[in-house]
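Please, structure for the following, as tokens.
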Amino acid sequence: MAQTTFSSSSSSLIPRAKHDVFLSFRGEDTRNNFTSHLHAALHKRGFQTFIDNKQLIKGEEISPSLISAIEGSRISIIVFSENYASSTWCLDEVVKIMECRESLGQLVWPIFFHVEPSQVRNQTGSFGEVFANCINRYKQKPKGHTSSSGDEALTDDSIEKYIEEKLANWKIALKKAGSLCGWHLSNGDESHLIQRIVEATLSKLNRTLLHIAKYPVGIERRLKNLVRLIKINTGNDVRVIGIYGIGGIGKTTIAKAVFNRFADDFEGASFLANVRETSKQYSGLIQLQETLLYEILGDPNIKVGNTHRGINIIKERLCHKRILLVLDDVDQFDQLETLSGGDVHDWFGPRSRIIITTRNKHFLTSHGVDETYEVEGLDFYEGIELLSWNAFKGDKPGEGYHELSRSVVDYANGLPLALVVSGSFLCRRKKSEWESVIYNLEKKPQKQVYDILKISYDALQDDEKAIFLDIACFFVGEKKDYIIKILGTYNFCPTIGIGVLIDMSLITIEWGKMRMHHVIQEVGREIVRQESPEVGRRSRLWLTEDVSHVFLENMGTNAIEGIKLDLPEPKTLYSSAKAFKKMKWLRMLILRNVVLSTVISYLPSELRFIDWPGYKFPTLPLNPGPKQLVILDMPQSHIQQLGEAFKVLIQLVEVFHCSFSFYKLI
């Protein structure tokens, strides 16, 4: 099947990158002066700016291409001049622009070019006279005049009603546009005003849109009711909206779509992703507070030090700002309390909007959100379309694959994540392979999502499986280059393996960091749990209770390949001196904020990577010790004695990052 460019009605609420700015103006007034200079200044700074260069044919309706240009712009700038209201085309543009402001959250900036804002708002003065003349001309149109849709000529009986509706829409749009904050130029410096407009555009559009989905099927249907709940441009109250649903249903995807669509309408906006996982990391909540302040204030030098100070800084600096804040994947009250306040209505300025995503509806209702929205699964037709885009690169199944596609969609039960992963796996595969997959799924009807995702895992090569499990257990949120460096120490081909995982829709790279949907991550971790009921016989350990049990009871085995604990604050784990003695094939050890109760007497010879900041003991067991070590990262350690084995070790490692409070060579 020939590949098709994605184009779906479901994507109409997804931000379009057609134009940054749409310029609405009256050609005879400003085309060859102010508007021309403004367009040139915006273009010089790299903004895609739409300017209509066609001369208006008298009486012509606004064209479909112009409507599309307005809808496809992030900002509309209306240059109100004395003769602006003499053009029905310009008036239709204002109506459409104000519709986009209300329905899509488009930014609208009026420029009052030698006219008073009150004249535009109330259609008075010289602006009002021009508008009145335009109305009179419009009322005298011939009876054969057609509707703006061009479908058919209006009947004599409907012409009067059509005209009255048209005039009413013009007046309402002018009143609304004339009431917006913008710029007023009477006898001022035009070049200075243009500079201010360009700077404002830079401030609003110098923000990269969040990646939503490669094929955003079903987004419009889901967003319709949610947008009504958010009420972007109404009221002065702070509104808090909770989005809930099962894992993989698309909560984060919808939150990203809302953020992209409306962020420019606020004084500041911040999207805090993966709050649940990030808050578990060392200084995770502090990092989130600093990210929030940076994204809204733009100051990279703000350091909060601790969460209590961060709370005060956020309240003091943002209490008068109208912001859009998305807290993605929240599951604990302390996360809300630290990032948006115990009463989430108190911290931010009037008309702010806070969106929270979670799996737990009760969590939302018990913490005072104004509205809740349950994300529904895809319907059957949306499911077929999403599967088809991933499996066949078109919006319909390939010839002869309709029934097979129906079976996969039925099994996925409306879960977008399952359809994306299964479609990516089945892409370019024979019917017999589809049938085999469906047969295996039907044998285990109780674990739908796990079974669908595990099919993709089972198809990986051994090295790719190891890379997938390492990422799922240890490296989500870490920098891609850092991960490649670590995985490269194990004789893997990480660049190729990571590329395969991306192609299989199992991971993504965002801002240079490794991302994995939490449902896929949980599948990876469940695969490790299924290796053995005994934690000491599993290949990877990442939970505090599991690691603590293995260390204390000396329950490690040759099965353990990697251990990672990244605790939010220092914690002592009771351990045996020979805790690592039985872990012959341990290749990776990451212990952050971990203090062992007993000095260790042995480190496995196969260790390739050690990340242990703040190591508390005076010696490191290096004889015989790890002979394959490639990366040693132990800043702020308390090592006091460094023997010959240590000097040999330093010659082996490629990356050496150690600092010592006091040491001596022996």
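The longest helix spans residues 156-178. Residues 8-16, 55-60, 144-152, 661-666 have pLDDT under 50 and may be disordered.
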